[in-house]
Every structure is written in C-alpha cells, then in structure tokens.
Amino acid sequence: MTPHPAAADQTAVEVDSLDFCYGSKQSLFNVTMKVPRNRVTAFIGPSGCGKSTLLRCINRMNDRIPEARVTGGSIRIDGVDVTSPSLDTIRLRREVGMVFQKSNPFPMSIYENVAYGLKLAGVKNPGNLEVVATYTVVEETLHLRLEAYADAATIVNLTNHAYWNLSGKPTIDSMTLEVRASAYTPVDATNIPDGRILPVEGTDFDLRKAALLGERNSAAHPDTAAGLDHNYVLDSEPGDKIAAILLDPESRHRLIVATDAPGLQVYTGEYLPQARQGIALEAQGFPNAVNTPHFPSVILRPGQSSTRSITWTVR
Q1: Which region, left, alpha or beta, applies to residue 269 given φ > 0 means left and ψ of -120 to 50 means alpha?
Q2: In the chain, what are the domains?
Q3: pTM above 0.70, yes or no
Q4: For residues 237 and 247, is the Cβ–Cβ distance under 8 A?
Q5: Nearest CA to 245 among 258, 233, 228, 259?
Q6: Core-most of 90, 164, 243, 301, by most CB within 10 Å?
Q7: Which are the contacts of 258, defined by CB distance < 8 A and separation ≥ 6?
Q8: In which residue ranges of the chain is pLDDT below 70?
C-alpha cells in the first residue's frame, strides 16, 4: 500500500457502499462512512451487529476466513482502495493493526496462529521445532515434562520461570534457600557465564547449607549483596535429583525442586517491579553453552529429542 498525501477533508478511511458476506450469509449491507484523521472513532452497537467484521474488512483480516468476501463497494485508506486484489495485504496489516478484546485465533492450528506474526514480519523458518509440555499433579507434587524435537539443528534449553514466595511477605528475605551444587558458573560484566566452572566452597555462593536470603543480600556477603542471578552446577546423580529446598521458617512451608537438568539458575528478583518479591529457581542447561564447548551441549539435531523433568513439591 502506498500512502497518499492527506486529503483536503482530512479523511483517513472512507467506506463506500460496502457489502460483505460469509459464504451465502450477508453480514454488512451498503455501509458508507468516513473516519477522520487524528481522531478517535468508536463503533457502538450490540454483539453480532458487524462491528468487528467491518474492522476486519479495513485491514483485510477477513481474507483468512474461507468464503468470506467483499461483494460490493470499496474501502479507501488515504485514497488507496484496499479491497483491490493486487494490494499487498501484508504491508496493509503492518500499517493497520487490530487489537481484540479477547484472544481471536484464526481458523488454523495453534502453531500457525503463534507463527503468523513472525511470518508476516518476514522471519524465515529455517526448520521446525516441536515442543510438548506435560503437567501432572500427584498429591503435593507438580511435575513438568518438557520434550522437544526438530528437523534442523537448533538451540534448545527449556526451563520454567515461576517465581516463589512462601512467606506472603513483601520480599523473600525471611526465607532460607539450600542449593545442592558444589560449583557455579561465574559471569562477566554483562551477566553472561564466562566459561569457568568454580567451586562454591569458601565463597558467598555456597548454599549447600540453607542460608537466609536476606542475609546473603547484605554487605557481609559482597559477591551476592546485589542479589543472585547465577547458574549453579548441580551435583551429578542419575535421573531426577533434589536441586533446591526453599523454606519459610515461620510457617514451615517448604518447596522442594527436583530435576534431571545439569544446572539451576537462581534469580532473587532484583528487577521485578518490587525488588525481591519472589525467587525463580530455573532448572536448565548452562547459559551460554552454545558458545562454551565444555558446557553440556544445548544443540538439538534431527532424529534426537531433548527432554527435561522438573518437579515442585510443596509441604
């Protein structure tokens, strides 16, 4: 669509004698109206009267619906007839957006709905990645199993980023955290692991014995005084292993995180809208593994599967 200079009457959108049908059912009858430039125009009417249908005609979203078509009239935006078959609808939709009151999926698969915006933006698809997340609840334990398959080599490092606060207080400072890891991956000035794997013994990062989170976020522990956003190298055991235990000493509420992942990212929420309101315990592969050959690989290749198990038990 090539925008034209603003018309003398400052009309941005002009609808003239528009008729529209879904199959054999006509939904719009001889609609004529003008939408002025730089003004807010509201369409008010009962549900099903055609408001959304008219809006979808303006940016040709109705083209995605089988047998939906304009049967008469025209719509012009800055003098350009957007009902023309030769119009570039992708460019039109970039310039004329639409926000729905609630989710309004197109009549196609969930994957196609999610990928539609990327395709419109011209993002090429070098391959297909299929991810399945299965949640199971058994008594006091929530289990998440993640599975990924790809038909081209790609990076896959799946995790869960839930925030936890067992105390109900404004911050996590009154809770204790135990992480069963004898090593961690230090970070550079941009908070990216720099390739080293160092022991936690004798450092502020040692959480093998439960430590009060507020105390670790203090001047007494300069390396963690600004908070934690670090990857811990979990002690190696076959299958699922307990990675961390979060405890509220007052209520005795306890969260036990178990996983088969090699690492656990501990983030104490310094950049939440309210700092330290929750803590994230993200079972994952090591960050920056794609650039660090001696880290466990996060490359998924055709014919392989990437799986991850994470459980959260609350007591």
Answers
A1: left
A2: 11-120 (3.40.50.300), 129-314 (2.70.98.10)
A3: no
A4: no
A5: 258
A6: 243
A7: 240, 241, 242, 243, 310, 311, 313
A8: 1-9
